[in-house]
Structure formats: structure tokens, C-alpha cells
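Take a record.
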Amino acid sequence: MKAALWIAAFLMSNGVMSAQWSPMPDSVKIWPKGMPPGGIKEKDNYGDHIVSVSHREMDGVVERHEHKDDVMVVQSGEAMLVYGGQGIGMHTSAAGEQQGTRIEGGTSVRVGPGDVITIAAGVPHQYLVPKSGHITYTLVKILKH
């Protein structure tokens, strides 16, 4: 519950949601127990932000988003989050997006259930998942204009 309130406060403070906003009957979507109704592959795009669930059972690639902040709430599992430093093997994977193989000189921190993580646009980041482990997290990508 604290995580949901934190995300709402974050979105409101960045102009994504307004305190004056009142939902229309079809503008509210519930994700029971943190899972989208359409399953883990569902991504809800609201124009200025995208909401999805990510599940990893192996290390992720290095990601660097030029125009998107990431807000993540870990639901289950654990991983080492590496961020900052220099992305190695970086290449353009889509407009405004780069991916690479590893990070040199970054900061490493273990994350687990209940942790809320924010990563500003431009910061390289990568999840390293323990052998036979996993991490599942709700992800809100906030588009920077």
C-alpha cells in the first residue's frame, strides 16, 4: 500500500496526475495482486507513462533510456541492481534507447520485495539475477518531454 501511495505521489508531483482528476467509469484499471488483467506481457500506455510488470530469471541487459524515468516496485524475488558508471557494448536498440552487455564503475545494491527504485533518464542500469533466482517488479516508465 505504501508503494502505491508513493507512486501516486510521485506521479502527481511530476504533473502526470492531477489532484483535481476524477475518474470516468472506464478510466480505472485494477491489477489484482500486482498483475495486469491481460497477463505479464500487458503494457498499458497512457501517453506520458507506461505501466507494466517485468519478470526476470536471468541477468538483464544494460539499459539506458534517453527520455524515460523508471519507477520500479519489487514484488518478489531479488537481484543485484547495478546503476551508473559506464555501459559497455552500448548500441541503439530503439529510438532514444540503448542496450549493452555490462556496467563498469557502477554502484551495486541488492533489491528485494517491497523496494521502490527510481532511475532517472540517462542512467545506465542492469539487473543481475542469482542462479536459480528471479525478480518480478511493477514498472512505470515516465516519458520526459
